[in-house]
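Troubleshooting log. The previous run stalled partway through. Resubmitting the same two chains, unchanged.
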Amino acid sequence: MDLALLTWLVPVSGVLALLYAFSRAQWVGKQEVGTPLMAELAQAIAEGARAFLRQEYRVLVIFVAVVAVLLAFANMSQPESSWMIAISFVVGAFCSALAGFIGMTVATKANVRTTQAARTGLAPALNVAFSGGLVMGLSVVGLGVLGLGVLFLAYDAMTVWSITKVIGVISGFSLGASSIALFARVGGGIYTKAADVGADLAGKVYEGIPEDDPRNPATIADNVGDNVGDVAGMGADLFESYVGSIIGTMVLGSAFISLPAFASGGMGDISAVILPLVLAGVGILVSIAGSLFVKVKEGGNPQHALNIGEFGAAGLMAVLAYFIITIMLPETWNHTSWNGVTTEYTSLGVFWAVLIGLAAGTIIGLVTEYYTATGKGPVTGIAHQSVTGSATNIIAGLGVGMFSTGIPAVVLALGIIGAFAFAGLYGIAIAAVGMLSVTGIQLAVDAYGPISDNAGGIAEMAELPPEVRERTDKLDAVGNTTAAIGKGFAIGSAALTALGLFAAFMQQAQVPNIDVANPNILAGLLLGAMLPYVFSAMAMGAVGRAAGDMIKEVGRQFAEIPGLREGTAKPDHERCVEISTKAAIREMVAPGLLAVIVPVVIGFIDKSMLGGLLAGVTVSGVLFAIFQSNAGGAWDNAKKMIESGIMIDGTQHGKGSEAHKAAVVGDTVGDPLKDTSGPSLNILIKLIAVVALVIAPLIA
Amino acid sequence: MDLALLTWLVPVSGVLALLYAFSRAQWVGKQEVGTPLMAELAQAIAEGARAFLRQEYRVLVIFVAVVAVLLAFANMSQPESSWMIAISFVVGAFCSALAGFIGMTVATKANVRTTQAARTGLAPALNVAFSGGLVMGLSVVGLGVLGLGVLFLAYDAMTVWSITKVIGVISGFSLGASSIALFARVGGGIYTKAADVGADLAGKVYEGIPEDDPRNPATIADNVGDNVGDVAGMGADLFESYVGSIIGTMVLGSAFISLPAFASGGMGDISAVILPLVLAGVGILVSIAGSLFVKVKEGGNPQHALNIGEFGAAGLMAVLAYFIITIMLPETWNHTSWNGVTTEYTSLGVFWAVLIGLAAGTIIGLVTEYYTATGKGPVTGIAHQSVTGSATNIIAGLGVGMFSTGIPAVVLALGIIGAFAFAGLYGIAIAAVGMLSVTGIQLAVDAYGPISDNAGGIAEMAELPPEVRERTDKLDAVGNTTAAIGKGFAIGSAALTALGLFAAFMQQAQVPNIDVANPNILAGLLLGAMLPYVFSAMAMGAVGRAAGDMIKEVGRQFAEIPGLREGTAKPDHERCVEISTKAAIREMVAPGLLAVIVPVVIGFIDKSMLGGLLAGVTVSGVLFAIFQSNAGGAWDNAKKMIESGIMIDGTQHGKGSEAHKAAVVGDTVGDPLKDTSGPSLNILIKLIAVVALVIAPLIA
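Second attempt completed without errors. Output:
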């Protein structure tokens, strides 16, 4: 096959994804909305979500403009490449923001339509919810591949630069994606928990204000938060991983195969650069194909349907990857790394690295599920410990979170060793691409969760018959599991992406080694390992302060709006949405600056020290994120287990029991851990790695 | 001064410390015990503590014997050195165990005598409590220096080996110290919290069983736990750091100065080896001198007295270190490291490294105090967050713990860079020696805390007049602060000691570099960073299970002993002590094996990977330990702040309020974090480093 043609097909697959996403979005939009009350509730949630995006994008435009100008003038000796980095950055930010906008818009349409579909049956409800999620998934991969592909083709055509330099300026795209991810994931995480905690606690602080009641003006903000955090936040997070892993691999690929095309029998020195793009493009088609198999019969298990789609896609991808790689790459070649070591590599080795990535992602997801799923040992243990009060519940949850880091760390360690053995540093980076190649359907399954969750909430608020609620509960229960797996996948992919970017940084900055026996590097390692702690503390503190603002506003409305308490007047939802939005955006400035400034400062002090910092922040951040996410997920489901009734030592415990009260405390503690600070660490480790990669030429 | 004479003076200073400790112990023993009830209570605590030690030592003897045999036959090609490592190991274990035995015996005598002294005034009470602590402090440093000094002189006299080989076999001493520390700190930590949590929760599980009541058979075990965990555990921890830092420095010192004595004007190639021993010996004299200044007038502040002693000793040590170092070492020399780099070093540089260690220890201690002290911002913040319930209290505490890692990480990073710049890897190791040189008085101040705490408890149980309780409260309040500082110091010193041992390992195992761009090393780093999480989870799980045993036993006694509930029959304390003891020893096997087996397995797979593991476990362990310790300390004092009455938003909160209940939950959660899993990490990181150092010649 012709290489030029193949390269052109990459953005085409992106366009295809967007067209298919558009058709699914149209289809979702055509579904029935249901009763006027349902429409009204959905309207309020959709408006709140849009309000958040408006506010966020207003700040983002300024932020992106400032950073773009800085980037454009960062390297006066190379004005042209500086400008192109700036343009890549703007395009990356735009693509990520657009994907988030599309995904959230459709998700806030799909929620109420899922509820309405659930009035007729389980199958149509699953169809609507999953279609809503698929739009998000395909928008992310479509815009990612389209943006990267077009930039690559355009820069390659416009300049006479080496492939290395072309890819260097494209890394700005990844920085743009990371910036939006920072706003969407950290800001969104603060938003969602500020609204959630604020709505819950208002009742405790002011007497007579009901929690979880339509009269509480913060409830809509709470529902908006689910979309903001779990749909848009997760989407931006995976968008960042997706493009980050591709760019990291392209950078390493540019020096990986140095044979000319005719001598190698393959596509020569550019094939390793194009490979991640091609794998991503094919992954889109595989994701669409997989999505066609997500069907359930009435009375069937939606989990089963989603599994067929997801694991089927992963399996198909593995098979196709074999053919793509063996066709595109030479069978065998010698690679001399930039620091002078020569090794023989094979196309089969690269295939094994991709397979390792796919397998590692799946295993980490399944382990995450084990530690956070209802009915499994760890969560049951927490439920049992709730009988003796909230302290033992908390201790048990912390223990589960800590323990759950074990297997993922071993899997990642083996994955690193294996991928490297098969294909060097390029192997580690392409393993991340392998893990992320079916992001389209993975993210569809992830986003399906909060849509079903919202659907259930609307069913309850609209007081629909119990069988509707039963169906949405069935969807929602599966959503909790997929959310847990998705979180594990997001952390694992962030880790591999960061390592790929780390390797790319070393090559671009020409760091000879990251020897921790060197005191600067050891100091960097220590500082890097500390950042996730301080970053998490900032995120958690932000939730506390923002929730405080929300509590005050709720109190003000109950005091000043006559008839609100009696239910004769309506609360001012918008004001609450605005407060949560403003707080989220204000509070994310400090942690955001930390993540950007620290690597720049350290990098200009000593590039090797920055290498140590990257290693430290990645390793420590992954473990701390797993700890927080899984502890939070386990507490959540321990509470759910007790709510559904559980026998412990011969006594029945259920909703309202002392054990339940204790479990609610655990769930509340876990909320900011699993939805704010934990996921924010995915962004932290990737953002620091991307910043390092972008400044690499300046400190080389 | 003659080098041989100087070397002989080292064990002499150890003997001096032991003689002085003996005289203080005699003096404490001669003080009045007070009323018969006081004597009875003290008797029960002392017997419980002895029972724990008996059980612990029974298991220890077997453990030490097995490991000694393994060590003796580990390297069949060098039977002589294997045997000497085994002997060093046994001597190290014996010295540490003996120090723990002496310290705990005197502490359990000093507690009741402090109470009795407090009946006459504050000054005599401080005197007794501090003297009790001083016996622990001087026993640790005395036996450490004596054991190391005698082994060094004996092996040097018995063999014709190079100095490097002699020091190599002495590293077994450090392994012995680490083994005891594992039992004392991890086992002790499990014991103390199992008893504490078990006693508290028994009342919740079985109706009608009073918490914190003499009828509760677990109360004595609880009091025993304070001595077991805070006196013996802390003592063994610092003993391990103390000897570990000295041995690490000796190993590095053996290759640090290669000039013959006459050419350098100093003491030639052995002076850098002897220097840590000499500094430690002088530190003992300085500690004794400092202790003489710990005096308080009636109505005065005991904190002030302790500060004069501690900071005075540190200041004096700094001055003396200048003269010792400039006299012992040549003014300037060239050092060619084992991997071929030549650098010029100066004696003044070594002095600066020592000063950096002293300063870093002090700063980390003060930062720890800030984050955990009553009335300061962080703790006040947690107290305020308690008003909205236990969930917000927990979230705030976790945030404080995370945030508190920031400054210590920066201080350690700067310390590493500074110490290395002044004196290479030797500088990092000797900085740890500098930090630990005044361990004698530091540990005296640490151990003073639990003695005062016990004294207060006895005053309350013996129903003494309020002014006695007021005086012991005053001592105890200061004890909380010193405990916090001591914990920070213990973590900081563990970190520097582990880094010193790490550098020594690299030299002994001839690891060319620990380049994290090497996938094996990166995998080692990741696995190492994960260990503190799993180890902590194991320790916390152990507390939960052991507390469960205790709860069952308390229930059994109330059911089976007639008249216990009515207060007419006595509970069976001994049985509870036995249960806690057995559980502690049973539960520490798994984490202990983890800490020993992992480095051995990884080391034999790839010595560089073991290097990565060491870097990972040290960096991650230090941060996770600071996080856990400080969160726990902050929760504890937030509870105390509310108990002493606090105005929040115009409302008064005190003992029994809702805010207090929430704060009690935080305190209970923090208990195992700050007293079991957190401090256990100090042992984990040092133990893994020592194991690596001991097996270094086998994998070199």
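Takeaways: Chain B touches chain A through 76 residues (CB under 8 Å). DSSP finds 20 helices and four strands in chain B.
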